[in-house]
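task queued by scheduler; priority normal; single chain, no ligands, no partner chains; default sampling; output format set to structure tokens
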Amino acid sequence: MLDLLSRDLEDLGRDAKIGQIGTILDRRLGSWVPDSLTARSLLSKFGSSNRATHLVEFLDCLRQRGLEYDLYIASVAITLCRKVSDWGTALDILKHMAGHHVELDTLTYNAAASACAKGGEWAQAL
């Protein structure tokens, strides 16, 4: 099931439209609620194809299915942004997690700062 979901997400490409991710999750997962470990695995597969711009939507879709955000999910998501130098999405995820009262650690903030630095946005990193 997760392999099919991963393939569907990869097939979306970088130009996925809002709502397509939720449709795929509904089709492949039905009423299944992901746990934190599975969500991190899905995030890694989703982000490995350089679609960090859709991570916030993907996180929202998982949360709507009952996933509780935690430090580890935030860390994986922001680290993916760092890998593809997507500083804007990294900062969006920081705000998103703060809005859901997730306590972040120094490593997560450092990954966000690193994403800003890799994207040439040193001022945002500070």
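post-processing summary
- The helical segments are 2-12, 20-29, 36-47, 55-64, 71-83, 87-99, 106-118, 122-125.
- Residues 71-83 form the longest helix (13 residues).
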